[in-house]
Amino acid sequence: MSLSVVMGFGPAGAATARLLAERGHSVRVVTLSGRSPEPGIQHIALDATDTARLIDASRGAAAIYNCASPPYHRWASGWPPLAASLTATAEATGAVLVMLGNLYGYGPVDGPMTEKLPPAATGPKGRVRAAVWEQARTLHEQGRIRAVEVRASDFFGPGVTDGGHLAARVVPRLLRGKPVSTLGDPDTPHSWSYVPDVARALVEVAGEERAWGRAWHVPTEPALSTREMIDRLAAQSRTGPVPVRRLSPAVLGIASVFSPLIRELKEIRYQFDRPFVADSSAYEAAFTVRATPVEEQVRATVSWWRERLGTAR
User: Fold this and answer.
1) What region does 287 belong to: left with phi over 0, alpha with psi -120 to 50, or beta?
2) How far apart, in whole angstroms, are the C-alpha atoms of residue 141 and residue 144?
3) Using CA atoms, how far apart are residues 142 and 199, in angstroms rounded to an integer?
4) DSSP 223
5) Contact 86, 101 (CB under 8 A)
6) FRET partner for 96 with CA separation of 20 to 30 A, picked from 68, 107, 231, 273?
7) CB 172 within 8 A of CB 305
8) pLDDT 10s digits, 177-224
9) Mapping DSSP to helix (H, G, I), strand (E, B) and coil, where does residue 58 land?
10) What is residue 103's predicted lDDT score, i.e. its pLDDT?
11) From CA 260, how far away is CA 125, in angstroms rounded?
């Protein structure tokens, strides 16, 4: 099978690399620090903004999957050089560039988000993410590269830890029957992207020429509020319902003094204070991947956390 290069080994990068390896692809993962090899996957340490080295590492690849991202509080300065290196590598090698995107670029909207919405982000993180895709799309239209973007909402599922809103700050507490705190209104509808579905969508569009040149939303189950998701997790955990508390602006303000991540969340508060709903019907009409039923998502997530914490039942 062909060589696939995966940038980054966070939840989505790891799921994508392992899915490709399971399907018989030769997989090369690029991260800053590298890792020990695992079956079917070679890990190399490389700064992805070093274009010459990235081109060398990607020669012969059929596809480059970008699941890497600069540190959250450095998106505005970190994304442009990373994106420039990725597109230059795609042009030099001829590999399809499959970009994992998000929904920030739309900005606050009324109603479900579709891929037809124009970029209207009001903050720097949303604007830079929209610009990264627009630049890749322009190069695609010029015939210089082949590119596609798959946009996900907030990650959920096995492997999602500190960066997830339904992960390290929530699941370990509810497994102990403790109250959990959430960002924004816990009762507003919200779309959650299950990481295995993200990986399956990335791999599918890489091999579908008719997918290239545009963005697609990851197949996603109907939106559920944070409280509804926590209730389902608690029920699966058999710990019973747990209190769900909204973090107050005062608490967030104090926390932001000490945490760059909390400080940066101010830009995306709208995503949790109002409905944040992704419409994935365009993808589902064109391709075969479907969202995993939410009951299966919750079951797998609780099982993963129990194993991680050593509390398996």
Assistant:
1) beta
2) 8
3) 28
4) P
5) no
6) 107
7) yes
8) 999 999 899 999 999 999 999 999 999 999 999 999 999 999 999 999
9) helix
10) 98
11) 14
State how far the Cα of 198 lies from the Cα of 220, in Å rounded to an integer: 9
Q: Is the separation of the CB atoms in 233 and 240 below 8 Å?
A: no
Helix (H) or strand (E) holding 286: helix 281-286
Q: Which of 109, 187, 157 is nearest to 291 (CA)?
A: 157
**Phi and psi at residue 246, in whole multiples of 5°?**
-85, 130
Spell out the SS3 assignment of 62-100. EEEEECCCCCHHHHHHHHHHHHHHHHHHHHHHCCEEEEE
More confident residue, 262 or 115: 115
Neighbours of 119 (CB within 10 A): 15
228 Cβ contact list (under 8 Å, min separation 6)? none
Contacts of 189 (CB under 8 A, 6+ apart): 223, 224, 225, 275, 276, 277
Q: What is the pTM of this model?
A: 0.95
Per-residue confidence at 266, pLDDT binned at 50, 70, 90? Answer: confident
Angle between helices 11-22 and 195-206 (to 10 degrees): 60
Residue 23 CB: number of other CB atoms within 10 A? 12
Task: Give dist(CA 149, CA 145) in Å, integer.
Answer: 13
The percent of the chain in helix, strand and coil, each rounded to the nearest 5, is 45, 20, 35
Mean pLDDT calculated for residue range 91-103: 98
DSSP symbol at 160: -
By three-state DSSP, how is residue 38 classified?
strand
CA distance 22 to 20: 5
Among positive and negative, which fits the CA dihedral 86, 87, 93, 99? positive
